[in-house]
Amino acid sequence: MFAAARLTGLLVLCLWAEHVGRSPSQLLTRTWDSVWYTRIAADGYGHTLHFTDGAVHSDLAFFPLYPGLVRAVTTVLPLTGDTAALLVSWAAAAAAAFAIYLLGERLQGRTTAAVLVLLWGLLPHSVVLSLAYTEPLLTAFAAFSLYAVLTGRWLWAGSLAALAGLSRPNGIAIAAAVCVAAAYELWKRRAHAPWRLWAAAVVAPLGWGGYVLWVGLRTGDPLGGYFAVQAGWRSRFDLGADNLLNVRDVALRPTELASPMTALIVTAAVLLFALLLVDRENRPPLPVLVYAGVLLLIAVGGGGFFESKPRFLLPAFPLLLPLACALTKARPRAAIVVITALAGLSCCYGTYLLMLAPMPL
Q1: What is the pTM for the complete model shown?
Q2: What is the domain range of residue 118?
Q3: CA distance 181 to 183
């Protein structure tokens, strides 16, 4: 079902691209951040753009695991960087879908797990799962790490969380989830806690923290260098002040479609997280809540690139659990109508984001 959802979206995108005379492959591999990742894979770090308004865009803002995997693929296989980037992204998206299914099956059963995967593949921004972007990679590692936590495989949980932390800045969310889960288990077991719990808590943040420290050392400011790089991109944590200004502009001024859609999607994410908290019957375990909550906090509390917020929330698949449970219990006809509507929205809006929207994805 996940493959069918994404292939349908790709088909719509390719047909429209051919209709207007644009290259589908260029759209998939040369859209916004994809260019930065493929350049890092080919040439390493060291590219910086300076703008007249004072913004400084350095490629040090991009975490290394994805371009590293792309480079590894081009080294082993006779593929171009663009093709390798898509191969890594699509393989990661498939792995993420499988991991989400495993987690959903453990929490709510097979039917709900299947619906959960389908909903994730039909999100309005799910076109990103088909691009040369890092969200599929983060989601795959994070979902497998959460599954490892719930099944008591602590060394796997910590190691996968470390890899997720090397994938994206918001990969810190899964490290936080593993650390909180390990701390809770240590508190329950006290003197009888196994050493694997301690190891998981130590290893989980190493990926994210290691890259942040490396950027700091490279820029001459070990603790603040990475955050200075992000500030050059106008990206900072301001407790949502910048987002509120953007919401005000959406309410008071004519805007592109992506801006009100962003406000709507983020609002829906907040409401879904509230449903996760208040639903005692279907409330997921603590690490799942922490993971989704930290991702939501970063998206809502972080400033800059307002229209990218739904993309930042793509890895927050646990937020879809209330919808998956509701569709599982709904009448088949009602569920089919809802899923069909979501599929239409996903295909059309994804095509709009790549073909028409003027702001960064």
Answers
A1: 0.95
A2: 2-355
A3: 5
